[in-house]
């Protein structure tokens, strides 16, 4: 994964960042499973986004971080937040809540590296090499193998939920490209804070219009919320934004292929879900795909 980073960023924290991001991001599926019985999805996300914005704002103020200057800077960060945070997570949580199997949702999300590579050239002028295309294809195959044993276990697939989930994947792809294009010199702490403000402005009205506001304050919900805010939304997003700034977006996006295998391993350890031999093979293939893509 070394080429996701520039030579000047070759310190040990930078070298650890890709792996740490995958570990943190993979816990999102664990959090979703943990809190699902205790809160409406968009209500949970509204609280998560709002608390994250407060935490990041406090952090930025404490260290004197530079805030965006002028409307354009605020607009760029809010657009990124609406795409990367709001539309993507709202779509995935809504789709799963409407009956889309989590394995299918993860497989749809795994299309992101393919979409990113396809549009990085026309929109950013990044050349995607043949080796990187090969790595993306191998990674997609690996993610599919990991998820394959689960795809037929939950009955039919609601077409509207599948469509919404795919739209969410398009949103995070466009958000990643937008972030790469507009945030080369911004302070990532204030940029992330404004992103989550944008996500709240999108999600709160949707929650008020479509949900009853279920939020039972049980220990599993509070535990999941705490990790979702501090681990996923603060830690994971700051690492992701840093990776996007330092690396080619196609290479960074390839890291998402590792999320389904790591999530499956976490589910095995935490919930006793079995891992079929095909899934273990898929993990190896996904890792190989990321290794190929990151050196392309």
Automatic annotation (TrEMBL):
Database matches in Gene3D superfamilies: 1.10.3730.20
Subcellular location(s) per record: Membrane
Location of the EamA domain: 21-147, 165-294
Predominant cellular place of this UniProt entry's protein: membrane
Transmembrane parts of this sequence: 12-36, 42-65, 77-96, 102-121, 133-149, 161-178, 190-209, 221-241, 248-270, 276-294
Keyword Nucleotide-binding set for record: yes
UniProt cross-references to InterPro entries, sorted A to Z: AA-Vitamin_Transporters (IPR050638), EamA_dom (IPR000620), EmrE-like (IPR037185)
GO cellular component, one term: membrane
Topology term for the membrane: Multi-pass membrane protein
Pfam assignment, any one: EamA
Molecular function GO terms recorded: ATP binding
Keyword Transmembrane helix: yes
UniProt family annotation: Belongs to the EamA transporter family.
Name of protein: Peptide ABC transporter ATP-binding protein
């Amino acid at each position: 994964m070394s080429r996701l980073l520039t030579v000047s960023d070759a310190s040990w924290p930078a070298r650890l960042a890709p792996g740490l991001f995958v570990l943190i991001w993979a816990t999102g599926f664990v959090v979703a499973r943990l809190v699902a019985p205790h809160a409406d999805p968009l209500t949970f996300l509204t609280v998560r986004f709002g608390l994250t914005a407060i935490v990041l704002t406090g952090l930025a103020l404490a260290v004197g971080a530079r805030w965006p200057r002028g409307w354009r800077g605020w607009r760029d960060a809010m657009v990124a937040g609406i795409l990367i945070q709001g539309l993507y997570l709202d779509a995935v949580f809504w789709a799963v809540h409407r009956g889309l199997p989590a394995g299918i949702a993860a497989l749809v999300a795994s299309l992101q590296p393919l979409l990113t590579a396809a549009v990085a050239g026309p929109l950013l002028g990044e050349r995607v090499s043949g080796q990187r295309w090969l790595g993306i294809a191998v990674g997609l195959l690996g993610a599919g193998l990991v998820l394959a044993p689960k795809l037929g276990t939950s009955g039919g697939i609601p077409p509207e939920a599948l469509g919404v989930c795919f739209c969410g994947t398009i949103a995070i792809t466009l958000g990643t490209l937008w972030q790469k294009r507009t945030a080369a010199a911004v302070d990532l702490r204030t940029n992330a804070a404004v992103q989550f403000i944008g996500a709240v402005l999108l999600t709160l009205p949707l929650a008020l219009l479509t949900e009853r506001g279920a939020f039972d304050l049980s220990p599993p919900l509070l535990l999941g919320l705490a990790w979702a805010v501090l681990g996923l939304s603060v830690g994971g997003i700051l690492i992701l934004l840093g990776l996007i700034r330092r690396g080619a977006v196609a290479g960074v996006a390839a890291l998402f292929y590792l999320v389904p295998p790591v999530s499956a391993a976490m589910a095995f350890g935490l919930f006793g879900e079995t891992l079929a031999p095909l899934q273990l093979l898929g993990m190896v293939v996904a890792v190989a795909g990321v290794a190929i893509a990151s050196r392309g």
